[in-house]
Amino acid sequence: YTEVTRYRSEEEVTERPGQGCFVSGLYLEGADWDTERGCLVRSRPKVLVVQLPILKVIPIEAHRLKLQNTLRTPVYTTSLRRNAMGVGLMFESDLFTTKHMSHWVLQGVCLCLNAD
């Protein structure tokens, strides 16, 4: 399970999480993140990639997880979404949204580890 925090930089994090870890340096492609509402929003014109606030990753068994209004977003190593061997998917992140999932699937929303 993942949740996007309100932290924009590593310096803002003052304590360790009770469970899991914090991940920084992720880039959101195909959408923008509203920090105040804590959800996905449409990207601004001519802005293709934005940096995501720090992500909190919490380990939990999949059958115990019951999420609503979230998009299972793939996290890739590069913006090409795969390498020469066809490998690139790292894991899937849960991003909160107020719109239907199909809207974001058609937008091609994903997270990348670098913004090349």
Description:
There is one protein chain. The protein is mostly beta strands. The chain contains one helix and ten strands. The strands form three sheets. Strands 6-3-10-8-9 form a five-stranded mixed beta sheet, with no helix packed on it. The chain is globular and about 35 Å long. It starts with a strand and ends with a strand. The model has no long low-confidence stretch (mean pLDDT 87).
Topology, please?
Layout: E1 2-4, E2 21-23, E3 27-29, E4 32-34, E5 39-41, E6 49-51, E7 55-57, E8 70-76, E9 89-96, H1 101-107, E10 110-112
Parallel strand pairs: 8-10
Antiparallel strand pairs: 1-7, 2-7, 3-6, 3-10, 4-5, 8-9
List keywords for this structure.
mainly beta, three-stranded antiparallel β-sheet, globular, 116 residues, single chain
Please describe the biggest sheet, giving its number of strands, its sense, and whether it closes into a barrel: 5 strands, mixed
Number of strands: 10
Shape: globular
Number of helices: 1
Low-confidence stretches: none
Fraction of helical residues: under 10%
Instruction: Please tell me the overall pLDDT.
Output: 87
Strand content: 25-35%
Derived structural class: mainly beta
* Adjacency order of strands in the biggest sheet: 6-3-10-8-9
Q: CA-to-CA gap between the ends?
A: 27 Å
Q: Cα-atom Rg, whole angstroms? A: 14 Å
Order of helices and strands: EEEEEEEEEHE
